[in-house]
């Protein structure tokens, strides 16, 4: 498979190259077989120059198509691997299709899979229903997926839902020890909810606040239009944009 291209794109390139090699002719025989076109054309010795020019022209056209296609594939792959926003902890945590946000160790990596496939040993869960002790996650192709290594060090990362658990190149993924104090505090003040039952990730009971924190807290930035109170670890607030994305991150 051509690096950075899907299997389907690679096969298409090989087909284009095949058209070049299929332009064969047999001089001295009454037929020239243009296998790439699936046609037969009677020809004599006087037509040798025309046939030669035809094959040369076909080779040039097909070669140009291959070059153009490869350039398009590389640009498309590069575009697909770009992130719209820089990954942040809050943006990944509040993403709608993130079902879990966990602290885990990578204990296995499938080297044979066409996709990046990892087995995680879950240590802590900061969002959603508590996952199984070991979770297999996928991350696209090798050219444009998340590259993780088996390690004894814990990492924090989101797990997206869907047909199979996955991680995304544009998600926030970090070693746990590499988190800042504010990022660790953010994770320790989450409310992990499962089927309408919520528990604070710090193991404590929610704080009883005299007033709604959103009523006495100003929006931290212009894009923050929606406030959600958070009673884990204090009388706190989480802010979102009008589209529901995490604000001010």
* Oligomeric state of this protein: single chain
Radius of gyration: 29 Å
CATH class type of the largest domain = Mainly Beta
Instruction: Report the uncertain regions.
Output: 1-5, 24-37, 72-78
Please tell me the overall pLDDT: 79
Give the overall shape, derived from the CA principal axes: globular
Number of strands: 11
Total individual domains = 3
Largest sheet: 5 strands, antiparallel
Query: CATH topology of the largest domain, what is it called?
Result: OB fold (Dihydrolipoamide Acetyltransferase, E2P)
The fraction of residues in strands falls at: 25-35%
Helix content: 10-25%
Number of contiguous helices = 4
Distance between the termini: 39 Å
CATH architecture of the largest domain: Beta Barrel
Order of strands across the main sheet: 5-4-3-6-7
- H-E string: HEEHHEEEEEHEEEE
Structural class: alpha+beta
Features of the shown structure:
249 residues, alpha+beta, OB fold (Dihydrolipoamide Acetyltransferase, E2P), five-stranded antiparallel sheet, two-stranded antiparallel sheet, 11 strands
How would you portray this structure in words?
This protein has helices at 7-21, 48-80, 89-93, 181-188, and strands spanning 31-34, 39-42, 98-109, 115-127, 134-141, 155-160, 174-175, 191-194, 197-200, 226-230, 236-240. With 249 residues, it is α+β, with helices and mostly antiparallel strands. Strand 4 and strand 5 form a beta hairpin. The protein starts with 6 loop residues before the first helix and ends in a 9-residue tail after the last strand. The model is unreliable at 1-5, 24-37 and 72-78 (pLDDT under 50).
């Amino acid at each position: 498979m051509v690096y950075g291209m899907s299997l389907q794109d690679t096969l298409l390139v090989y087909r284009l190259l095949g058209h070049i090699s299929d332009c064969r002719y047999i001089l001295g025989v009454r037929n020239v077989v243009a296998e790439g076109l699936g046609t037969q054309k009677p020809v004599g010795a006087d037509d040798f120059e025309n046939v030669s020019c035809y094959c040369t022209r076909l080779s040039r056209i097909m070669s140009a198509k291959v070059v153009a296609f490869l350039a398009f594939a590389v640009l498309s792959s590069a575009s697909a691997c770009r992130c719209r926003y820089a990954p942040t902890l809050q943006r990944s945590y509040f993403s709608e299709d993130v079902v879990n946000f966990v602290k885990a160790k990578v204990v296995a990596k499938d080297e044979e899979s066409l996709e990046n496939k990892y087995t995680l040993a879950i240590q802590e869960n900061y969002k959603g229903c508590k996952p199984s002790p070991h979770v297999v996650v996928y991350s696209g192709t090798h050219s444009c997926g998340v590259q993780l290594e088996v390690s004894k060090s814990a990492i924090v990362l989101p797990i997206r839902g869907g047909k199979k658990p996955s991680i995304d190149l544009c998600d926030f993924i970090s070693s746990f020890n590499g988190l800042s104090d504010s990022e660790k505090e953010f994770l320790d003040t989450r409310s992990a909810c499962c089927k309408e039952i919520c528990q604070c990730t710090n193991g404590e009971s929610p704080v009883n606040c005299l007033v709604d924190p959103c009523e006495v807290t100003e929006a931290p930035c212009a894009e923050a239009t929606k406030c959600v109170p958070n009673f884990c670890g204090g009388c706190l607030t989480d802010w979102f944009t009008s589209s529901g994305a995490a604000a001010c991150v």
